[in-house]
Amino acid sequence: MKSHAVRAHRSSEHLTRQDQLAWKIASVAADDVPLEPDVVEMIGNRIIDNAAVAAASLARRPVASARAQARAHAFHPGATVFGLPPTERVSPEWAAWANGVAVRELDFHDTFLAADYSHPGDNIPPILAVAQHCGLSGAALARGLATGYEIQVDLVKGICLHEHKIDHIAHLGPSAAAGIGAALGLPVETIHQAVQQALHVTTTTRQSRKGEISSWKAYAPAFAGKMAVEAVDRAMRGEGAPSPAWEGEDGFIAWLLGGPQAEYAVPLPEKGEAKRAIMDTYTKEHSAEYQSQALIDLARRMGPRIGDLSRVESIVIHTSHHTHHVIGTGANDPQKMDPRASRETLDHSIMYIFAVALEDGGWHHERSYAPERANRPGTVALWRKISTLEDPAWTRRYHSHDPGDKAFGGRVVVALQDGTVIEDEIAVADAHPLGARPFTRPDYVRKFRTLADGIVGQDEQDRFVAAVERLLDLKPEDLAGLTVTADAAGLGAAAACGIFDWKRG
């Protein structure tokens, strides 16, 4: 890996294309290096992971709405939509949209956290949609996915967005565009323009994850994927983009990030170097914000030691700056303590999550968020006794570049009414590669079968898993198999009509 210094430049400095971050990203994308076996295995794992969480979300309103929008854009050859038969095809950007919402709705797929944070599995829907529409092979798809993961992880390592209140999809648009370009085998110049265009149109604020969090939290990465497809299409037609997108005098760094004096260091593979960034990422065992994964595991470990939870006086979670300020009491969001809050808001409240995990000894992607669950008097009482504090040691570990030191957990101090104090800590989730029970292919398949149960038939589940097992050998006509068709009862209906399905009278 080579570290690239990135800063704003005055127009008079004339930054050459070869020195621009977008060109360097495009060069990595166009470098067709062989994929290593463990990377191919992990790509298959994440395709399974995405299908699992998509299946579980098919009947939810945001997913049904996005699917209805996509179905209004039937297209041939087109791409498949989760839940629908593979013969029903829609335009690839709308497939990326519908599938992106389905994958992100439950916030239950893979994650990578560094200078910023991300869900790299969000790259899969747009790259797969283009691969299906354009008749690419499984090997070409895998090349694109390895690239999408590589670029997003590298950007997340080098550039912090959230401190400037920019939503993390600003890294996803460029990574998905690069992945699509790699899958299609496009030249550096074309990918360069697409990456810049995708950055320009996917820069949005973090209000999507603040206050009254709405369904846009699931739609935001789908929007980035849709924009990436359109950006590549424009670039393939010879159209340009705002340039240099990151370094320009009126560009991303100068006005939306650290300003004219800021400098970032973005690591990228050198020419001929394997794309392995997907191996740095990790999935979720629990359907909740990633920083809560380890703390859910700690709660189910501490619950038996605490015993009667009515005896709890207070619970303080000592954790990283990010956890404290994004999903903890440091966010200063009263909605995080409100039993009437939306599922999306509860998902971003470690106080609520830790209380329920203590009471239930675990976490469920539906029952744990149910309104009747959130309004249980005992839960509300315990929830309001929980607070978070930033601990510099956990903040340092959160940002550590050493995988063995990097941590996303915290130390929990429980004070009982009789003066007893119970403490415990956890660094990483049990399912993390360095955790107590790292996820492997059987775990991903089990997660898929658990979440698809009652929604996708057994034969269809078997067919899908078998298709993933043959990923590199899939022919263009086989790529439609990388989706799942739901039983009729497993699909929810869109709650209302919109412009695309408007009916006069």
From TrEMBL:
* Enzyme class name: lyase
Query: What Gene3D superfamilies would the database entry show?
Result: 2-methylcitrate dehydratase PrpD
State the EC number(s): 4.2.1.79
Do you know which SUPFAM superfamilies this protein is assigned to? 2-methylcitrate dehydratase PrpD
Q: Name one Pfam family in it.
A: MmgE_PrpD_N
Sorted alphabetically, the keyword list is: Lyase
Domain annotation MmgE/PrpD C-terminal: ranges? 286-470
Q: Taking every annotated instance into account, which residue ranges of this chain make up the domain MmgE/PrpD N-terminal? A: 20-264
Q: Which InterPro entries match?
A: MmgE/PrpD_sf, MmgE/PrpD_sf_1, MmgE/PrpD_sf_2, MmgE_PrpD, MmgE_PrpD_C, MmgE_PrpD_N
Write one Gene Ontology MF term: 2-methylcitrate dehydratase activity
Give the superkingdom in one word.
Answer: Bacteria
User: Which family is annotated?
Assistant: Belongs to the PrpD family.
Instruction: Output this protein's name.
Output: 2-methylcitrate dehydratase
- The protein's organism comes out as Labrys wisconsinensis
